[in-house]
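Lab manual, section 2.4: Encoding a predicted structure.

Procedure: take the sequence of the chain (205 residues), apply the prediction step described in section 2.3, and record the output as structure tokens. A sample record is shown.
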Amino acid sequence: MKTCEKCIYREHIQKNIEVSKNSVIFNEGDSIESLFFIKEGTVKLTKLYKNGVEKVMDVLRDGDFIALLTLLQNKDCYLVTATALEDCVLEVIKREDALVNYETNINFKETCMKCAAHRLENFHNQLYSTSDLDPEEKIMNTLTHLYNKFGYMKNKSHYVKLPISKTDFANMVGLRRETLSRKLSKLQKEGKIDYIKNIYEFKNM
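Recorded output:
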């Protein structure tokens, strides 16, 4: 069972909803009425900056909350846009129910704090990976971040199957798609990674 899944108090869940691939769950700036728990599927979080650039902030999977940090920070609006990358099943938890449980149930509060700390760590790691590092370091840091969420082992080798397109991957890294392709080829020639389509193998992990 993933850490976040322990946070769910199902007597307060209002309903399950099915969200089709590419559907928007909520938009950045929408009023926060609920948080969501991913039972099935993957969800992309994006943020639109003032210069008009949309940035892929993270990718969430089954067992993750959507908008947990935003709710715990008592924000009025969602800070990102959440989009289903595939058909998803979500549990919807009303804001009021989640906040009441957070204040009255110590186990719920402690587990939510652990989930929030883990999410913050991932966010900070993502910021670091897209800072003033060289492109190869950015790519490897982002791949490692995604491996920690979606990775698996096969024949003693470490793999990650990316749940996002190469365009979104380039966006997440902070590179143009053409630059990403060149740098991936370089990393492959250097023996650091191998890849076929969206499956990447770490050669030195």
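Check your result against the sample. The two ends are 25 Å apart (CA to CA).
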